Amino acid sequence: MDHTLLGFVILYLVLSIGIGLYAATKVHSASDYITAGRSLPMIVVVAMVFATWFGAETVLGIPATFLDENLGGTISDPFGAALALILFGLFFARPLYRMKLLTLGDFFRQRYNRSVEVVISSAIALSYLGWVSAQVVALGLVFNVLSSGAITQQEGILIGAAVVLLYTLFGGMWSVALTTLVQMTVIVVGLLWIAKLVTDMPEVGGVAPVIEHATAAGKFEFWPPLEWAAIITFIAGLLTMGLGSIPQQDVFQRANSSRTERIAVWGTVIGGALYFLFAAVPIYLTYSATLVDPAMTATLLAEDAQLVLPTFVKTHLPFYAQIIFYGALLSVIMSTASGTLLAPSVTISENIIKEFMPHHRMSQKKLLWITRSVVVAFTLLVVAYSLWSLESETSIHEMVANAYKVTLACAFVPLVAGLYWKRASNLGAGLAIVLGLIAWIVMEFIAPDAALPPQFAGLIASAVGMVAGSVATSPKSPRI
């Protein structure tokens, strides 16, 4: 049965690669590759926003955290993640869409200067390393479970990275759009159907008993104790992802690929709301496993809570349900991995490498070739980081939570001020970046577990730098 299940999974991977290669026929320029020609309809934008964030973290990481801790432990994701998408749609999508930018880094060059563009673009690209690696580590985990250990997690990481690279490399944003539309269908239909199967199991007996059991076990405790340290840590957990995810190329890229400004705004908001609501399904499935097989759950919790759901499906559900689940799981991981692999590669090629090339020789085809080369290089970096994180036993939840610290500390304030404060100046942006990064890095070394988390100290320092630098210089009209 293991070989048959693995065969179906391989067939699904081949289908995804085929869709990606078909998407490559629509790519004729760097603009097609990066923004899909700004031609995508509402349903595709909603699907991309939803499925890009609905990744390994949502299916494996969040439920594992819920089992280990409680609902309050998931404050960064899905609460912070959904908040970021909704805020981006309401306050950032419209003004950025009107600027007709290729990347978010282009905004920092137009609004401030070249130095601000390079530093923030580098920070944005760096922040993706942990995020993409989390998806690749999850792919390794899936292949390991599917093959009953015949494929090691390290080998699974190499296989998963190769598949995602193959279809992202040629199709770019078109590949992400088309594969995501298929993958979202598999995700929604598959997980809802599996939830019904689990609900009908005699050990579960419906949704209400699962909720009652979780409530009795204290799993729905959400608010922190009424102590300053706990409250600040709780708020920082929400805002690290809730604000730090806003100055990100992948979120911007999805909104910017929309056919109209209205689609850019509401496609992002609806996608964010759906993401938040649907994140409850994997939590429900994973907690149900504790009712069906308490012994297995206890053993896996001691080893790795991320294994609970895939192992439960493999040992307690019918074969056809296993095919659906693993198809859905691969869908969520690959859709997230492809989008988040493309985003930093585009940022590096457009906002860092391109500026060092002679402009009169930089054709669209050459920029496309450079972007694809960076996709390959970044994938190799992701694989190296994934293998290292496996050795250091860093969880998927930690990898994702850590990804947005750098952008919160140095990119969020310049973005908000650049859009909404006319007096925001180059000096203000420069000080915001420098002070934010220094405060964050210093605090990470001297007080990583302080009541005020390091990235939050960086955010405050960044805001102080922006205000001080902008007030110190003469007011300038924004160059938007």
Description:
The protein folds into two domains: 2-398, Sodium/glucose cotransporter (Up-down Bundle), CATH 1.20.1730; 421-480, no CATH class. The model has no long low-confidence stretch (mean pLDDT 86). By secondary structure, it is mainly alpha-helical. The chain is globular, with a radius of gyration of 22 Å. The protein has helices at residues 2-23, 30-35, 42-53, 56-68, 75-98, 104-111, 114-146, 153-199, 207-216, 228-244, 249-256, 261-278, 280-292, 294-303, 308-316, 319-353, 364-392, 396-403, 405-410, 412-420, 426-446, 454-472. 79% of the residues lie in helices and 0% in strands. It has 22 helices and no strands. Helix 7 packs antiparallel against helix 18 (396-403).
Distance between the termini: 60 Å
Q: State the secondary-structure class.
A: mainly alpha
CATH architecture of the largest domain: Up-down Bundle
Largest sheet descriptor? none
Concise summary:
The chain has 480 residues and is mostly helical.
Layout: helices, strands, pairs:
Layout: H1 2-23, H2 30-35, H3 42-53, H4 56-68, H5 75-98, H6 104-111, H7 114-146, H8 153-199, H9 207-216, H10 228-244, H11 249-256, H12 261-278, H13 280-292, H14 294-303, H15 308-316, H16 319-353, H17 364-392, H18 396-403, H19 405-410, H20 412-420, H21 426-446, H22 454-472
